[in-house]
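pinned: reference chain
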Amino acid sequence: MKKVFYHVLTPMHIGSGTTLSLIDLPIQREVHTDFPVMPSSAIKGVVRASFNEQEQEDIFGKGDEEGKVIFTDGKILLFPVKSLKGVFVWITSPYVLERFKRDTEINVEIPKVEKDNAVVSSNNVLMNNNKLVLEEFTFNAAINENLKKLKEITKCEIDENKIAVVSDDVFKFFVKNYTEVNARIKIDQAKGTVQKGGLWYEELLPAETVFYGCIDARKESEHQEQLNKVIGRINNQILQFGGDETLGRGFTKIVVEA
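pinned: its structure tokens
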């Protein structure tokens, strides 16, 4: 099973449909954590579209025939949050790292973090007295340079000096409340005004978010060739996920482990 990392380069909208909340078009989230997620169906669909028709049938199946490559959901690993120093910081949490370690069998150090504390990879994002300020919240921070290994592990173009571990509750709060919400309107071209019902709010995942997932051959001995074709096609490539392609949404760099 190969590990795959998805580095979101432009705001992304993989929608979950309509909702009764204030946001008309929310992004997809895990039911049990409320964390943003890249569903495997969306990943598979985008990768499938990058092959020609014959290759699609050979790799992804046709009709009742099952595909030969397995895709898992993209789970969140790093989420960007505005920082008073250093522009922004990639945050993660002990639970996220524990899950990453279990899913990928990659050994990462998992710091213990209390609610008002944080562990950062360097002092580049700290204010006086070792304070980390994210949005309007301040955390007492300690430095653990082992967090810099996350850049090496993911092979993504992130700044190793801007990684922070916050508590699970704080992480959930930020990924729930600090996504982007854009107002969209549809203009009546004849009147030059907003059409009736032509105002809606759309949620976007911020650029720089990092997800991880896995891909594998459905039958290891028989489908390795198809898996290798997929890896060769997507590794170090930028593909577009979710809606609003013509608005530049969802362009994401994919890195597959060697």
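why pinned: The mean pLDDT is 93. The chain has six helices and 14 strands.
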